[in-house]
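Here is one chain, start to finish.
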Amino acid sequence: MKKIIIFIIVLFMYVSSTSANTQSTWQQDAQTVEPDIISNPLAFQMFNNEKQPELDVDPSSLILLYGDNYIVISSNKADNLVTKKVSFNQKSSQQEIEKLSVLPNHFDKFQATILENKLYLVGYRKKWLFYSLDLQEEQAQWQSLPTPVSPNSAVKNVYLAAQSDGEKIAIYSISQLSSPTEKINVSQFLSKESGWKSIAPANQIAVLDPISFSSAFAQSHILVMTQSAQVIGFNTVTKAWSEYHEASPYLRTIQAKLVGTELVASFNNSESGSDSIARLQLKNTNKDFGLVNMLVLVVYLLAVVAVGLFFMFKNKNTDDYFRGGQSIPWWAAACSIYATMLSSLTYIALPAVVYRSDWVLLLGIWMIIAVAPIAVYVAIPFFRQLDATSAYEYLSKRFNLPVRLFASGLFTLFHVGRMGIVMALTALALSAVTPLSAAESVLIMGVLCLLYCTLGGVEAVIWTDTVQTIVLLIGAFACFAIIIMGLDGGFTHFIEIGIADNKFTFANVDFSLNSITTLSIWVIVIGGIGQNISSYTADQAVVQRYMVTESSNAATKSIWANAWLAAPGALLFFCIGTGLYVFYQQHPEKLDPSLQIDQIFPAFISNELPIGVAGLIIAGIFAAAQSTVSTSMNSIATTVVTDFVRPFQLVKNEKSYMKVARALTFLSGLLGTLVGLIFIDPEIRSLMEAYFKVIGMFMGALGGIFVLGALTKRANSLGAIVGLTSGVLVMISAWQFGWANGYLYGTIGILTCLIIGYVVSLISPKHQKDLNGLTLFTMNK
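Its structure:
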């Protein structure tokens, strides 16, 4: 164990030092670049001190980045617009130019953007016109589309940007009205059939002079820069404007572009008359996390580790390590189930999902109440009767050992992925409000989980889960109260804006053929039932809680308590999500535009809650993620020891099994930490959606195999293997080809496994097997 701890510390120190070096290099690169370094102000190609190939283009050309290539739009001698795709040969360093379709119009001014392999262009000559060009289609021709400007509008400039509104990516037009107003109108374009929709009236903000630049920024903002270097931003979720930089009377912008999160701009100094290229980075002006908050965070996390050390001395055998000696109170088991199933995913990601959308997911979460009777009257009696340590022991008795091993392996893969998503989500959130980078946060969570879970076993996990539940729910109530108090108009304004902007939409009533790919009401209800059935019948992390209490009656109480805790808890987090939307619509200047949407709630906690309280809640989120991860670690070790090691008698005595259990706990935590580092990806727009897909990909088929075994007497081992494999393959096809919404994956997996497994069992030879106590029809025999 000493060697393991030393290894963890050395690994953490190495990765932390690497992260620190990267951070200092990033700051060093944010500097003013002298004009003689880059001769062409239109090709600001310099990034991280690496000079990219310069484009040989006319100074009036418009340059867009398209993958590894450039799209160049310029005027030719015939006064038409010529479009070229320019790539660079890495061996010869020569430009390779492919001419694209020529527009049949000449424009006095034009702008363009790219979305999903299509080039969109807006231009003006006597009137504004809008076109698109498919960049993947050979010999593609420009397609005329509805114009973003109405015929009678006095519009001086139109700029385009492709950005997400939280649910879908669309084309946005930034239209600057002519003098004397100089105001901006924003419209959204989704398709040729739907046309343009005005989403921000022109009376919301005014600029000082003509716009020189407009571009999508981060996940939900569009930055606009004027010729006097005034920088303003439009939030595509809240539809609110904010100003990020005061206009300078001395700088006139020639051209600008985004490189990552930096703004690279070519300026002309009106006093000296000289040109220069500068790298600008928006700085977060929100208050620092603070010493007091950091002390609270450190003390809280050390206390969690102390819990693990305390229970280390109580574990005498694997029954203590995996089942807590079956002495856990029902209410603590209920809190542990709640924290395991939701935890930091609910606390961070669910308000983020609601902030950018509405309440359609609530009904699916409430399906736990509909599924609770199945857990109480079917799952608990099965597992308690078998006195199972692993949920998959049932499959060995009902079918055979290969089915058990296959299912146990799928569960292990699911929880490694789940650990990665939970750690990545929490790390991304905490990196926005603490001095820690996302990688450092993942490593700290991984290290602490490895320590207290490897040492303390399931009892340490359950009692820390109980504390997390209390801290996080009290903190959630406090956050919602502070949101309401921070609104002009209070709770009344919260309700009014929620209704006006359709934020309280409870269901999308759609039963068309295409509704399977959307969050329609039937997808939510059926998907919610499927997810909960999978979790409460086939997830070792939950089934293990059935076995830690002293009796079936206590386990039943824990399920019902968890269900009635989850329902109002979900409602609270939906209120927080809508509250954040209203709060940042009213106070847009308080929102850092560089944040990912999943980071918004932790940033609110850090910036708006009192010092100390914010630290406690952030610590609670941190530790809640650790609890979820530690639960997965302990569950993986439980299934591997029980399903793979014991059946083959790979070790000889109980002491050796304890060593193997701790080693497997450590290994699973290490794998989860590595996956968490991989999931730190700003392109993942919602980790909650990624989590739903992971649940369906692995747990749907697992839930189906338990349903197949419990509800049918005809099912056999061949049908079980074929059904389970089919369920996984169907889920992979849904993921790859997108023919179903990710929320429905779990239910599709259950039905596929159940139907195909039963059909195969019917047509295969019937084998006599004692099913006493193994199906719903033979439980009492």
